[in-house]
Write a structure and sequence with these properties.
With 258 residues, the chain is α/β, with parallel strands linked by helices. It is 46% helix and 16% strand. The chain has 2 domains: 193 residues, 2-enoyl-CoA Hydratase, Chain A, domain 1 (Alpha-Beta Complex); 48 residues, Lyase 2-enoyl-coa Hydratase, Chain  A, domain 2 (Orthogonal Bundle), CATH 1.10.12.
Length: 258
C-alpha cells in the first residue's frame, strides 16, 4: 500500500504536525496533496485537543511548487472546476496558530503555503521563490498578494517578475521569515515554539491571530477597535482569571481554553 502523501503526527501534547510526504517529487503539490492538506488543517482546526500546528516537509524540500507534470495539459475550464482557491482558503482559515518549518525548497506553491502560516522557521540552507513566470504562468496561491503584504511592493515585484530564488537570510531580512536556524534544528525549533504557544491561554491565542489577520487590511482605527473588543472579551473567560491569579500567586497557570 502506498504511503500517504500527507502525514499527521502528534509529537507533543496539544501539538499536531502535518508532514508533506512526496520525497520522490520534492514534495510537489499535486491535487491529492492540496486536498489532504485542506482536509487535515480543517479537522485539526476544529479539534479542541490541538492548540498549535506545525506544517513541514523533509530535509530536502518543504514543497518545491506545483506538480508541473499534472498541470501541463490542463485547460482553463479544468482550472476553474478545480477551484484551488478554496483549498488555499482552508489553510489560511485555520483558527489555530500554524508554524511552517521550512528546509530546502519552498518554491511557487510551497512558498505560498508557507505564507498561509502564522510563523515561518527556516533552515539556513532554505530557498524561497515564486518562479512561475519562468514556465509561462503567474503565482496562483497568494504569491502576488500575501508576498506583497509581507515584504512590500518593490521586493514582491522583483521576486515575482524575475522568478529568482532567494535564501533564508534574505527572507528573514525582508520580513518573510520569523527565525533562521541551523538546518538540522528546524523541526525541533518549530515544535519547541508550538509547545510554548500551546501552553498559553487558547482563547487569547486565537483572538490574537484573528485580530492581527483581520486588522492588517483594515484602517488603524478599525484595527484598534477590533483589538479593544478582543481584550474586553477575555475578561469573561476562566483563563483570564486563572492567568492573573497565577501571576499574583507566583505559580504556573493552568489554562483550560474556557
Amino acid at each position: 500500500m502506498a504511503a500517504s502523501v500527507v502525514v499527521v503526527e502528534r509529537p507533543a501534547e496539544s501539538v499536531a504536525l502535518i508532514r508533506i510526504n512526496r520525497p520522490e517529487a520534492r514534495n510537489a503539490l499535486n491535487m491529492e496533496v492540496r486536498k489532504l492538506l485542506a482536509q487535515h488543517m480543517t479537522e485539526l482546526g476544529n479539534d479542541n485537543a490541538v492548540r498549535c500546528i506545525v506544517l513541514t516537509g523533509n530535509d530536502k524540500s518543504f514543497a518545491a511548487g506545483a506538480d508541473i507534470k499534472e498541470m501541463s495539459g490542463v485547460g482553463t475550464v479544468d482550472m476553474i472546476l478545480r477551484d484551488s482557491l478554496k483549498l488555499w482558503r482552508a489553510l489560511a482559515a485555520c483558527p489555530k496558530p500554524v508554524i511552517a518549518a521550512v528546509n530546502g525548497f519552498a518554491l511557487g506553491g510551497g512558498c505560498e503555503i508557507a505564507m498561509t502560516c502564522d510563523i515561518i522557521i527556516a533552515g539556513e540552507s532554505a530557498r524561497f521563490g515564486q518562479p512561475e513566470v519562468k514556465i509561462g504562468i503567474t503565482p496562483g496561491g497568494g504569491g502576488t498578494q500575501r508576498l506583497t503584504r509581507a515584504v512590500g511592493k518593490y521586493k514582491a515585484m522583483k521576486i515575482c517578475l524575475t522568478g529568482e530564488l532567494f535564501g533564508a537570510k534574505e527572507a528573514f531580512d525582508m520580513g518573510l521569515v520569523s527565525e533562521v536556524v541551523p538546518d538540522a534544528e528546524v523541526e525541533k525549533r518549530a515544535l519547541e515554539m508550538a509547545q510554548q504557544i500551546a501552553a498559553l491561554a487558547p482563547l487569547a491565542v486565537q483572538q490574537i491571530k484573528e485580530v492581527i489577520l483581520a486588522g492588517q487590511d483594515a484602517s488603524l482605527e478599525t484595527g484598534l477597535r477590533l483589538e479593544a473588543k478582543a481584550i474586553q472579551l477575555m475578561f469573561s473567560t476562566h483563563d483570564q482569571k486563572e492567568g492573573m491569579a497565577a501571576f499574583i500567586e507566583k505559580r504556573k497557570p493552568q489554562f483550560l481554553g474556557k
